[in-house]
Amino acid sequence: MDKAQLEKLKKQELVVVRSLLKRQNEMLGQSLLLLDHLIYLQKSINLLSSREIFRALSEKLPYILSIKYFSLFLFDKSKRHLKLVCHNHPDLKTDFTIHYSESDIMRDALAGGRYILEQDFSRSRYYRGKKNPLFQCDFFVTLPLMVENEIVGAINLNDSEKGSFDVTDLDFALSAAEFLSLSVSNALLHEQTERLSVTDGLTGLTNHKQMQIFLKNELARSRRYNAPLSIAMLDVDHFKKVNDTYGHQKGDEILMELAHIMTRICRSNDVAARYGGEEFLLILPETPLPGAIHIVDRVREEMASTPFKSQGTEFHVTVSAGVGQYDPKIMTGGAEDLIKVCDHALYQAKEGGRNQTVKGNPDEALHA
Amino acid sequence: MLESFKDLEGLPSLPGQIMNMLEESSRTSTMDYNVIQLIQYDPAIALRVLKKANSPLYGFSGKIASVQQALGLLGPAAIKNIILTTPILERFRDFNSIDLDIDFPRLWRYMGITSAIAGGLARIRGNMETDVCFTAGLTHDAGKIALAVQYPALFQKALNLCSEKSIPLALAEGEVFGFTHTDVLVVLAKKWKFPHQLIHAVSACCLTRMEEVVYELPSVICLAKHLADSWGYADGIDTHTPMNIGKVLEVLNISEGELKSWEPQLREQLDAALSVIGE
Question: What torsion, rounded to 10 degrees, do the Cα atoms A73, A78, A80, A86 define?
């Protein structure tokens, strides 16, 4: 190779090296930016409350993923439902649920456990001929949210400022989806565990331990604001006989039905709890005794009118109830005294022939 | 001096190679065939890919013996980062003060072609891991790059000695460094936790050790090197190393006639490699 050829070769290589360095610099800058976004996303959704995660996503996800719109659906495995939990579409209502077969694109993404990226909305088999006036760009992306092959949900991405969704965007969205899946899944599990620790496994009502906490808080609130507070204790009549006659499974069904009725009749601030066995307790804040009796009578009457069936036989079950209103002057022992008053009234209801509500008498109950 | 290679994070690649791979890897998200093709003919980037795949991060330390397995394990994002962070080997700048007599693009082409022929030989002969043979063929001479990059002046001295005395490069390296480019690669391969079979293959195929070649995998590499040389694709560096072809064929249980009959298929492999590497 002569000197001229060598010089030419040197110049050629210099051009390639310069161009490569420029490209590397640009790509490394982009990588650092994406890494920064990923860390920021992780910090933003490293939470134990799914509601807080969804709030953070609504606010930040479009920016992090450089897209305009997104919608996040959670998958209910048992019902095969997809529930919209988080989005930033202006016209989409929240909290709607669809069967997963109703959305071809999400169904395919979840069934295949793979992303779906279509560059042309109107030409894709999912939305052939359709056009969403909201979107300026033609692409759409659906990513399954999965943790170790377990489907958590799906996320849909639409529209971007730059007008396209390229390979780098997709790679990044897939990485972000992994973080997202894990955070959402962890939060849901945490919430489920928390819920299970305070609810009764059979009826889904507040359990005894949690009821004590609620009652203590309500008593304090009642004293603080001088607000009326009543509680009621309910017990299924002849429950042992029902169990012996129709079996324990039927007994469980009766308890679940009573819980269902109580939940339906209770107001949002009321607490329905399983006290133990076939005994239930209602905490009724801001409720004087007559109001409490009214609510309990409605529960009692509805229960009495509910038919149960076993081996072709129809039968009815009744409940008895004792109701008491908190009086801080008399009930110095707090929750213990109030429960004692209701328990005494319940005893009287049983003694009086069952299927009735008896008003508690603190003097009698506490000095008996 | 050999120990100093343990500090080497990886080998640089040629600017044109890196540029092509970056362009290809930016085009698609899924593991693109073109990117795989380019990487599997580039010894420096292939070693980086193998190093990453054998790192504890992926849980397969010491188990990934082929660049094809490694590419499958790592995924497109990691591959792109490897390409992006590969240093550039600037022939006219890195060795500006030293008149290093190496045609690097030719060396790259030779290694790519050796890998293609080694893979082809393994496939035609059968009962061999084609991808491992391919990878060993690609990387077995990468120690030469390491020597050129780390000690260019001394390496040039070894090249001169090789040329002046008409001795195998490995002998010249031994005189100058006290070790060979194969020893360098073995140090790197061990440090990067490559599988034993790959380390053994690259260490045993050093041509000066032909008498030791009793294993099939190193023999395939030796035969591939021989074919690459005889078909006009020698690396232009190591021109005086003897080849005991009879011994290699004996180990592989192949007759000369059989080898001759395989030539059209092997040439196809060669052409496929050249279509990626360039003539």
Answer: -10
**Residue A51 pLDDT > 90:** yes
Contacts of B77 in chain A (CB under 8 A): 171, 175
pLDDT at B208 over 50: no
Domain identity same for A93 and A166: yes
Number of A–B residue contacts, CB under 8 Å: 45
- Give ∠ CA A76-A77-A79 in degrees, rounded to 5: 70
> What would the mean pLDDT of A314-342 be, rounded to a whole number?
95
Please report residues of A whose CB lies closer than 8 A to that of B92: 9-10, 13-14
Q: Which residues of A touch B90 (CB under 8 A)?
A: 13, 17
Nearest CA in chain A to B24: A167
| Cβ <8 Å between B77 and A19 | no
Q: Whose CA is closest to A140, among A162, A122, A113?
A: A122
User: What per-residue confidence (pLDDT) applies to B11?
Assistant: 95
By the 8 A CB rule, do A147 and A183 touch?
Answer: no
Mean pLDDT of B67-80: 87
**Percentage of residues in chain A with pLDDT exceeding 70?**
99
Of A192, A227, A252, the domain-final residue: A192
Contact B15 A9 (CB under 8 A): no
Task: Based on the fold, state whether residues A269 and A176 are members of the same structural domain.
Answer: no
